[in-house]
Amino acid sequence: MFYGENIKLLRNLHGMSRRSLAVELNCSEQTIGQYERGVLNPKMKNIIDMSAYFAVKSSFFYSKLPVKDTIPEKNIAYRSRDRDVRKKTLEGSTKLKLASSIIEFCESSFNLKASPLLTAIDEVNSIKNKQENSDLSKNQIESYANITRNLLGIKSNSELLYNLELNGVYVIESDALSYADAYSVWSRNNDNRLIRPFIVLGNSTTLVRRIFDLAHELGHLVIHYDVDMNNLEKEEFLRCEKEANEFASAFLLPQNEVSSWIKMVIHKGDPDAYIPVKQKYYVSLATAAYRAYELGYLSKQENSRFFASRYRKHYVYKEPFDDKMPLTKPGKIMALFEIYNKKIEPFSNVLNDFSIEPQFLSDVFCLPEDLITKLVTKKPSYYNNIIEF
Fold first, then answer.
1. What is the pLDDT of residues 122-142, one digit of tens each?
2. What pLDDT score does 389 carry?
3. How far apart are the C-alpha atoms of 137 and 80, rounded to whole Å?
C-alpha cells in the first residue's frame, strides 16, 4: 500500500513546497498533491528519484512508519529577534518528530531515569501557584535558576553541555539553523505528559556563546514548557525571551558568587577587567558586566563606559580568549546509537524499520554520515534484554 502522507513528511522535513518537489521530479504541483492525498500512485521512476533525493529506501513510501507525533509545534521556543521565524516551525517540528521517534525506538530497550528537569518544573510550578501575579519577577527567575542549577548538580559552566546530556536532555546541532540561534521543546505522549527535552543549537562560533544558548533554552524548557509560542503577541514573545535571558544569566552567574568576584573587578567600566570572570565561569565579558549591572554592582555610568569601550575594542563579535576555549559538541545521541548497536541488535535494523539510509539519519541528527555508515557496518555482539543506560 502506498502512503502519500510519507511524501508530505519528507517535504516538511526539508522545508519544501509541493511546487519545488514537482520541479525536482519533473511533474506538476497538482500531481504531487494527488500523490499525498493517495489519489494517484507515483510511477516507479518517481519513487526511485524521491528515494535518492531524500535518502530513504523505496519501502519508505509503502510503509506505515513508526513515527509518532510527539513534538507540539506550538510549544517550540525559538531564540530569535525575528518574529517571522515562527513560519519555519513546521520544518523544525518535523525534524524533531523524526528524531524523537528514532530515539524512543532505541530507548525502549533501556531503563532510563526521569530527567531532573521534570522535578525542576514541579518545584517551579509549586512556587508559581503561590503567586497572585502571573508575570515573573526577577526574584522568581533567580529562584528558578538556582533550583534548576542545584537539581542538575552544576559544578562548572564549562561542562554544561555534558551535564545536560547526562540529565536527559537531547542536544542536536543544526548546520541549517540560520534563522535562529537555537530552539527547544519537550516531546510528549498521548496524554500530553512531558517525556524528553530537546535543544537544537545553531552554529555557535564560540564556547561562551554556546553555553549561554544552552542556558537560555534551559530557561524555556523549565518556565515556558507549556506556552503556546505560535499565538504570542510580539510583546509577549519578547517578554518570554527576556525571561529566558534573565534565567540564563542567573543560572550561569549565581547571585552569591557575583557578590564575591565583583570585588576583584577594580575598573568596572573596562571590559578587560572581566577576563578572569570569563575564564572561570565561561561567560562573555558582556554577560558578566550585564549581570553585575542588573544586581546593582555597576552604576549606570560604569555600564555605559563598559559597552562603549567594548565597541571601541572590537569585542562585539570576538572577545579575548574566545580562541582558547574549544567548542564542545553533543555526544549523547551517538552514544545511544552505539550502545544500542553493541548491546541490543545491529543498528542497521533501526534504519530498516524506518526505511531510511545513513544520510537521512545524518541529516536529522546533524551527525557525520561516515560515523553512521561505520555504525551500521559493525558486527556487534548484542543481547536481547533490557539494560541500564
1. 999 998 887 766 678 889 999
2. 45
3. 22
CA distance 64 to 73: 22
What is the spatial distance between Cα 360 and Cα 102, in angstroms, rounded to a whole number? 12
**Which pLDDT belongs to residue 231?**
87
pTM of the entire predicted model = 0.91
Q: Pairing mode, if any, of strands 77-79 and 182-188?
A: antiparallel
The three three-digit cell numbers of residue 286, written as one number? 558582556
DSSP-derived secondary structure letter, 195: E
Taken in order of first residue, the domains within the chain and their CATH numbers are 5-62 (1.10.260.40), 66-250 (no CATH), 253-329 (no CATH), 332-388 (no CATH)
- DSSP letters of 239-273? HHHHHHHHHHHHHHS-HHHHHHHGGG-S-TT-GGG
> How many alpha carbons fall within 13 Å on the CB side of residue 6?
24
Segments in the chain below pLDDT 70: 79-88, 132-134, 176-180, 378-389
CB-neighbour burial class of residue 363 (10 A; exposed 0-12, middle 13-18, buried 19+): buried
CB of 177 closer than 8 Å to CB of 200: yes
